[in-house]
Design a protein that fits this description.
422 residues; eleven-stranded mixed β-sheet; 35% helix; binds L-homoserine
Length: 422
């Protein structure tokens, strides 16, 4: 069988995972799928670095031209990570008519138009299953299995690191900083955790997912983003008393022709399937007008889960008679500048007559209806208690406006956390 020549951009843990899969599973794949591959060249930063799989040194080069301008190579697999030079390399490969398979959500989300245009103009394939949620076949589902649907919402736990941290905070009542330090010790969080804990990683993935869901390019810079660094053990515990579990949720909805795309800490009812997604697992919950609600669940990161998606794309690319590019229109997407949801509001309030009337009065003035409320614990030494409100579905702007107008000497807002999934 004729072998399809493949070039790698990068050979870190994921690249080694892909090489290992091709080496150990290649014969079976040949038999099952009718395609065979040969790795021709691998671009690396350091030629002598020790790798976690025995990749022949003769394949390595530190010159990008050896992959990008190599006429032998049909398919370029990119797993160098980061925005540049990965994005430019992918564009150059596509311009040469080579198919690109990538795991790089940052480069793809940040250079979506240029990358997709290069593929379209040069008739090249672009495959990116591994860029969102590792092994979970959510891109394939969006592009193919759910084509007959008008999708109204996508809600996902699409960052494993933050899900691990929030799961442990919830189980153990531990503080954010303690769990983060532990996760870093265990290698489950990066030494610089910013991309994960501030929601950047999830925003890149949500940009790709919502673009496919709504057939409009949803630029990453238009996504509202709030990380988990401000989450307190007290909020997690208070949420539990209301039957709520805290997650870093990526939410995209289409309502009245406008798109909301946001990443923020979110409570979900304990009975919601997303509440049961623990530790570093990922899940995406989709609602389509024909298919109804469904959830995709699995490992969203890690060398072999990511390699699984990459090799699957490689096989799909090799077998494609015609490459399918994202079904995304040219019209700009209209983003919503406000949205409605249930809000969890925790505040510190003076325990004296009239304070509840003040809070409920301000909420009422702004059309925010209260669904339930508890006063927690004893007064502190200054006479304050914790009040926790759950609103009915209310405009975010109205909730913020009401809170900003409450007498600061009697109440101070501790946290406002959105609640989804009712
Ligand atoms: N750092 C990501 C996560 C994996 O924690 O899910 C790569 O996107």
């Amino acid at each position: 069988m004729e072998k399809i020549k493949v070039g790698f951009l990068g050979c870190g843990n994921i690249g080694c995972g892909v090489y290992k899969l091709l080496e150990t599973y290649g014969k079976e794949m040949e038999r099952n799928e009718g395609v065979a591959f040969q790795v021709e060249k691998i671009l690396v930063r350091s030629l002598n670095k020790k790798r976690n799989w025995d990749v022949p040194a003769a394949l390595f080069t530190d010159n990008a031209q050896d992959v990008l301008d190599n006429d032998q190579i049909d398919i370029v697999m990119e797993f160098m990570g980061g925005e540049q030079p990965a994005a430019s390399y992918m564009i150059r490969a596509l311009e040469k008519g080579k198919t690109v398979v990538t795991a790089n959500k940052m480069a793809l989300a940040s250079h979506w138009d240029e990358i997709v245009s290069a593929a379209r103009e040069h008739g090249a394939g672009l495959y990116y299953e591994a860029s969102v949620c590792g092994a979970i076949p959510i891109i394939r589902a969006m592009n193919e299995s759910l084509q007959a649907n008008r999708i109204s919402s996508v809600m996902g736990i699409i960052n494993g690191t933050t899900n691990y941290i929030l799961t442990r905070m919830s189980r153990e009542g531990a503080a954010y900083e303690d769990v983060l330090a532990d996760a870093q010790r265990l290698g489950l969080a990066e030494p610089d955790p910013t991309a994960d804990v501030e929601g950047y990683d999830a925003a890149y993935k949500l940009s790709i997912l919502s673009t496919l869901a709504f057939h409009r390019h949803v630029p990453v810079e238009k996504i509202y983003r709030e990380g988990i660094t401000g989450v307190t053990a007290l909020d997690v515990a208070c949420g539990r008393e209301f039957g709520l579990t805290l997650k870093l949720l990526a939410v995209a909805k289409q309502e009245d022709g406008k798109i909301q795309a946001r990443v923020h800490p979110t409570f979900v009812p304990d009975s919601h399937p997303l509440a049961g997604v623990s530790d570093a697992f990922n899940a995406v919950y989709v609602d389509g007008h024909a298919c109804g609600e469904m959830m995709f669940y699995g490992r969203g990161a890690g060398d072999m889960p990511t390699a699984s998606a990459l090799v699957s794309d490689l096989v799909k690319a090799a077998r494609a008679k015609r490459h399918q590019l994202p079904a995304v229109g040219d019209e700009p997407c209209v983003m919503a500048d406000d949205w409605s949801c249930v809000h969890f509001v925790r505040m510190r309030a003076k325990d004296e007559p009239g304070v509840l009337a003040l809070v409920s009065g301000k909420f009422a003035e702004h059309g925010v209806s209260i669904s339930s409320m508890v006063q927690k614990g004893d007064r502190d030494e200054r006479g304050y208690v914790q009040l926790i409100f759950l609103t009915h579905k209310a405009s975010e702007r109205a909730v913020r406006c009401a809170l900003s107008q409450m007498d600061g000497s009697r109440v101070s807002s501790g946290s406002v956390i959105r609640v989804e999934g009712f």
